[in-house]
Amino acid sequence: MADGINFGNIPLGDHDADWFKVMAAASNSSLRVKAASVIGYFVRRRKEEYREIIQYTANKYGISFDECFNKLKNGESLGDPLDYFEVDPKMESKIENDSDIR
Asked: Which of 17, 44, 63, 86 could cysteine-pair with 12, CB 3.0–4.6 Å?
């Protein structure tokens, strides 16, 4: 198993924080276990959607899917986009409007 990610404090509004605490307690889980469960669910649920975005981004920067994935994972620059890349406005909008991405 990977070392995991230390998120520190996650800024939640009072309403969401209260509900999250109650949901963890109601399921007899610690906040840490419940947070890991929620994040794992999010990743599984949206993985294919993000796979499409990562492939589009890789194509845009002229790199492989794996290279793009690893650069994003490690917080590295993707470099400059290809001059001749044909931008897909629908994908660009999807990336721009999804606060979960970048």
From this structure: 17
What per-residue confidence (pLDDT) applies to 100?
52
Residue 6 pLDDT more than 60?
Answer: yes
- Which range marks the domain in which residue 36 is found? 14-97
Q: What confidence score (pLDDT) does residue 87 get?
A: 87
Picking from 64, 1, 4, 10, the residue whose alpha carbon sits closest to that of residue 36 is 4
pLDDT tens digits, 7-32: 778 888 999 999 999 999 999 999 99
Contacts of 12 (CB under 8 A, 6+ apart): 20
Q: Encoding tokens for residue 82?
A: 């290809």
Let me know if residue 77 belongs to a domain.
Answer: yes
The domain tally of the chain equals 1
DSSP string, 52-97: HHHHHHHHHHT--HHHHHHHHHHT----PPPTT----HHHHHHHHH
